[in-house]
Batch of 2 targets.
Target 1
Amino acid sequence: MRAAMTWPAGCASRRISRASRSARLPARNTRALVLALAGAACVAGTLIIRAATINMPFADARPILAALREDLVPAGLRGGQAGNQPAAAWPAWVSRHDADIRARLEEGDEDSIANLTLFGTSFSSEPRITELQISDMAAGKPAPAALQTRIGRMASAAAAPGDNEHLRFVREVAQRKRFDPQTAAGQERVRRWLSDRVARIVAEYRARAAVIFDPAATTVDQATLFRARGLSSDTTIFPGFAIEQALDALKSNDLLGPRAVRRVAIVGPGLDFSDKEEGFDFYPQQTIQPFATIDSLLRLGLAAPGNLRVTTLDLSPRVNHHIESALARARRGSRYVLQLPRDDRFHWTPFLASYWEHVGERIGESAAPLPVPAGAGTIQVRAVRVRPDVVLSITPTDLNIVLQRIDTRSPADGFDLIVATNILLYYDVFEQGLALANIAHMLKPGGFLLTNTQVATLPSIPMELIGYTDVGYTDRPEGDRVFWLQKIAK
Ligand SMILES: C[S@@+](CC[C@H](N)C(=O)[O-])C[C@H]1O[C@@H](n2cnc3c(N)ncnc32)[C@H](O)[C@@H]1O
């Protein structure tokens, strides 16, 4: 994840001779983690489900249950792991757990609203709250005065959002919680709710820092860092850069040849609503990753124009509906406009800066960006108008990657590439194992998964960790490690 603090200082971010550092692992290295562990959605009248999806069969879950330590297995599936009882419990457990996972979206939406309260500029001219101030609050220092003003302004904005889609969403979520921002009592409840949500963000910041800086924290602690958090939809341009670096490394290692990629899946493409660090709300919500991935594949010659299909797999109705609406507009000839801000407070590496200058060139053309409002800071913005044919190459699909998969008729129908960034760390080890099995099922033999979460490869899952790319973004000690996992040809 734009992994503030996740990787140790100096891992990749200060290298300026190369954009990133990649390593191809020796074949025998790949299963080390196993040993460590052994022991139809309808939105606003639009039908979202496009591909045939099925629940994961118990036959694929059984070996994962058997490989994990008992304490890593959900209580409802424990006991007699090799016996028949979990098999009988499986279908009901899957539907219950699917509902539980989807219920986490609500919390994620509320986190996004808290981030908007901290950083948005459309409803308040108070200074944006900084990460340093959040870190001070996490250390017990008083909140900056601007915070209470921002909360008050957001409560008023929820009462009269106008046509601002961010603020309309705040009102919608407030109303779902049965707060009426039109009344004085409702305003007070919205203010209390926002204060609570901000307090939760601060507490999570503290908890995350505790894991990241705890020398005793294990790889598994880090890889499952958000397992108890709400499911956020937020996204930025950073994973686009990281995936381009990883694809470039696969190409230079002769692991992906010219025009080898025809079918791609993006698990959890996300929506840029108001990210926790560099997010803004002066432009409409947008999805970035499907476009950035297509652009990278074309730039690197790994896909041919007109011969690439992208399937997005997401359980968020908001994300799916957003992409479905973009498709409807593209069918009428409209372009999809990406607004790509660059905050001058952060010192991007020359490689990220160069990526930002060129991203989108293969899928559209530059356009005049939206003006940056006063109070948003010193920001440069690039805008790209994406061609309708590119938008129409995307198929959104409602799918919970932990429990579901697209029913590929034969291995050859599978994807050449699956991208899953900033999603698997929202799940525990068992759920990650299930997700990896679903991903393996959907890949062609020899196909690749690129993910920035170190998931365990288990003997029953035909996936092999064959290398990784370390990517730095700024001059700060932060970055991502993008793992390359390949489906083993049987
Ligand atoms: C934090 S966003 C990351 C977006 C983007 N991949 C990125 O790296 O910036 C996580 C995305 O994954 C989706 N997601 C979370 N859990 C999922 C699941 N079990 N199955 C499918 N999508 C999921 C969310 O709805 C959201 O779109």
Target 2
Amino acid sequence: MSADADPTPHPGAPPSPGPLLLFDIDGTLVRAGTRAHRLALHEALAQVHGVDADRVGLRVSPAGRTDGEIARTILLDAGVSAERIDARADAVREACCRAYARLCEPDLSDCVVKGIPELLAWLGQLDGPRLSLVTGNYEPVARLKLRRAGIGRWFPAGQGGFGSDSEDRAALPPIARRRAGPRGRPHPRKQTIVVGDTPRDIACAQADGLRCIAVTTGRFGADQLQGADAVAVDARELHAALAEMIADHLPRAPE
Ligand SMILES: [Mg+2]
């Protein structure tokens, strides 16, 4: 059996770990506030590659893509070779994070999706569920964005999967599960749920064999989010969908 396989529990085995919830950020927790993020990435591309990203443009939607993937798409279209992109990927990431620290709006609390602070507070006081992230944002960008939005405290350091870990979003859930497990043993797939707003969130969950709750608080409607195990139009429906999936870990009603 590979180290990543979900073992069958045997009698007397310790109780299974609580659910690991992997939240996307843009369109899921935070509704907007991406202008400074885009400016920071463009500034990094100008600084490191001398490329004017505004002139080149982005021929694909950035929704659900990692920062590194967006940078690569722009750079390839500007005629930069794949080798040069690879060689300077760390420099682009560092320049972007530096620029974002300077450009990020001081208060993003108005950009938080309605009802999300209450949802996180509810999850945070439950005994069991663990809150984590799977986002295409470079990690320092993600952490600062959530801090300025006033919801960073729910997502512990050292956890999650970020655009700084891989350009490929499908690689991020296994990274987040590995960070959540004890001694490098990945958190079980059956106990992991991805929450995101794009078909790419659903695809990355499916690539790792995970359940996914899609939310329509980003750019996509329910008809574009097929393949998710549940679709929620707002935080109230997300609460209900999560409650159903993590029912084993909710406090029991008095008999
Ligand atoms: Mg998103």
